[in-house]
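Table 4 source record.
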Amino acid sequence: MTTPSFPTPGSGRHAAPPPGCPARRLYGPEAENDPMGLYEKLRAEHGSVAPVLLHGDVPAWLVLGHSENLHMTRTPSQFSRDSRRWRALHDGTAPPDHPLAPVFTWQPLCVFADGAEHERLRGAVTDAIARIDHRGVRRHINRYSNRLVNEFCQDGRADLVGRFAEHLPMMVMAQILGMPEEYNERLVQAARDMIKGTETANESNEYVMTVLRGLVARRRAAPEEDFASRLAGHPAGLTDDEVAQHLRLVLIAAYETTANLIANVLRMVLTDPRFRARLSGGHMTLPEAVEQTLWDEPPFTTILGRWAVGDIELGGKRIKAGDALIVGIAGANADPVVRPDRGASMRGNRAHLAFSGGPHECPGQDIGRAIADTGIDALLLRLPDLQLAVEERELRYKAALMSRQLLELPVTFEPRPPQDVTGPPNATPAVGWPQWQVDSPWPGSGPVPQPQPQPRPESQSEPVPGSQPVDPSAPVLAEPAAPVPAQRTESAPRRAWRALSRWWQGN
């Protein structure tokens, strides 16, 4: 059992740690260029729990072991979520204007509470989530996916991060929360910026809170059928500040994780031949592909934090009362104790820590999965001939403490006309391009209901702030009469029937 000493904080933002210092920085070039490589170095040097330095050389512990992370997240009596316990706050090591202040500054949130207070606040959030109309959400996802694809489908090329992955989750979450009119580019960029530890993080945080405070005021005056109204009217009696803070929590957590998840799944589909072959051959469904990505490329790489209630040992290290600990999600998912072969399929295994664990496990993870699953399915159905436009080695990333973000995913495809956004996505195979298929399982059990003939809805689009309107005269594409490639011969009729059935069910 060891007690490594940390250096004096504030010794330079990107300089190398002082000679003999056992801690490595979780910011700067090494952490930004290869975070997984850094985690493995820390594991080799220190084992399952490693001393690290946050921005400004603020000391903390990074937990890399899978079992150690589970113990930490499941034992709030030893590892509290109340950041006011952090010694660095009391001695000035982590000042109020610290770049990570939006992440660690105590707020009246369930993520900073334990015990009865945590149950009161989280209960309000989970109750509001439970009342979300999931079928309605899937309709919004399909509609917004269609609208986003319509904006670039005639170009023959696009950046799927900047034009799809970054926008779809925010469009859907703004609708769920009850503020579709607030969706705009600034809200998207502020949501990405506020948890990155940048110089503008605090400014971005204030912009997001200003938007949400306005939403709370409107819903107090005139409740509607949306998440914000349910949270504001919950019997737990949340104050206006508590409602606004929890709206921000749900918005940012769902947005950041889902935007990264969509980008990572699409990257794997486009760059890993085995991944794509399993999907196109019917050996893997899209939800299974999402789960595999949650193991290999979790949307959040780390989460700050937990704070030691008292002196305790974890992973052979002596943790002192008031020490900060970081949930090492990516490191735990790669722990050789639970995953000796990093290349092995994790099909059917949901033991990853992509959504943390214990009483603070992400309550909205199913919403994120639904946005990723349905949105990617719609995109691949509209543009089945997507091809990466650059070599995989040319893809660029930006890593921060909590996530590793793919900056661009440039692709090419055969140009296609826009589609009616009110209907389900329609496939339009292009001659001369390789074709493949992704089948998502039918949501629910039992046989697929038999649809009856109904009038086709009029081709008109619903206005969504920040999007270009679709020409009502644009043709609605029908199922193609082009030859079906050999690998899809048997499944094409079943796929067409599924699309019709999903339209009938409103999905």
